[in-house]
Amino acid sequence: SEKQELLKELEHLKPRLEPLRILVQGPVGAGKSCFINTVQRVLLGRNVSIALESSTTAIQGESFTLSKHGGGYYPFVFNDIMGLETKGEGIQIEDIKVLEGHVLEGYKVSPQSSKDDKRYNPRPSPGDRIHCLVNIVPADAISRLDDSVIDKMRTIRKKASEWSIPQVIVLTKVDNACEIVSQDLRKLYHSKKVKDKVEVSSHKLGIPLNNIYPMKNYHAEITEDTNVDVLILMALRDIVNFANDYVESIASESLPGS
User: Fold this and answer.
1) Fold for the domain defined by 2-251
2) Which range is the signal sequence, renumbered to this chain (predicted)?
C-alpha cells in the first residue's frame, strides 16, 4: 500500500548529517503539538503524546525525537518554538537565532535573552542549524490571523530564506474549513474551499503552492485513518528530503557568517 511504501522510505532514510533538524512554527492554536504527535502516532502505528498541547513554557529549541516501530529513533528531530502570540508575547524576533543553530536545548526566551546565556551557542556547526522550516497554519482561521502574527512568521521565513533554508506550509484543520472534506478526506484535492485556503496561505506567507500540504491532524480520534496517515507521511517524506537536500548543499560550501 502507499502508506507502507512511504513508511519504508522513511525507515531507510540515511541522511548525510544526523539528526536533520526541522523547525515548527505557527500561531498559538494552529496545531503544532498536535502535528508533532500525529507524525509520531503515524510512524509508530499507535496513539502517543510526546508534545504537550498548548504548552506555554517559554522554551525555545525544545526538540522531539521520533521513535521507530521496532526500537531506536528516526534520523530527524522536530524543534518546536513557542506559539507566535499577537501582542508582544511569544517568540522574540531577535531570538530567531535558533535558525542558525545559536540556541541549544532549553534556551529560555525572554526579553533579557542574551549571548551570556550558557545555552547560547556562539559557533554553531552545520548540525546545529535548522535544515527545514515548517509553518503550521490553521486552514479554518488563516483569513482571521492577526497581521502581527503573519508579520512574525514572514520575518522568520525571510531569515530562513537568507540562509536558503527550505520552507513549507502544513495547512492543518482542513476538515474544519470544508464540510465535504470533514465527511470524506479523500475529497481534499477536489475541495474549492481548501484550494482557496491553500492560495490564501501561499499569498500571506510567500511560499509557493507546491510547498503547501493540506492535512488533518489526529485530535480526538482513537482509531487510525489511512487517509490521514498517507497525507502526513507524504508531507513528512518531502520535509525530510528537503532538509537532506539542504544539508547536501551546505556540505559543499562554506557557511555565511561562520
Assistant:
1) Rossmann fold (3.40.50)
2) none
**pTM for the complete prediction?**
0.87
Alpha carbon distance 162, 31 (integer Å): 27
- In contact, 138 and 173? CB cutoff 8 Å: yes
Q: Show the DSSP H helices in the chain as ranges.
A: 2-11, 32-44, 147-162, 174-177, 179-183, 192-205, 226-251
Instruction: State the Cα–Cα distance between residues 129 and 181, nearest whole angstrom.
Output: 37
From 140, 205, 136, select the one nearest 173 (Cα to Cα).
140
- Could you say which DSSP state residue 103 is in? B
Alpha carbon 81 to its chain's center: 10
For the stretch 170-187, what's the b/e string if a residue is b when 16 or more beta carbons lie within 10 angstroms of its beta carbon?
bbbbbbebbeebeeebee
Q: Which three cell numbers stand for residue 65?
A: 525525537
pLDDT digits (tens, 9 = 90+) for 192-249: 999 999 999 999 999 999 999 999 999 777 788 999 999 999 999 999 999 999 999 9
What is the rounded distance in angstroms from the CA atom of residue 80 to the CA atom of residue 62?
A: 6
Closest CA to 233 of 47, 39, 68: 39
| C-alpha cell recorded at residue 137 | 497554519
Can you tell me the distance from the alpha carbon of 87 to that of 248, in angstroms, rounded to the nearest whole number? 38
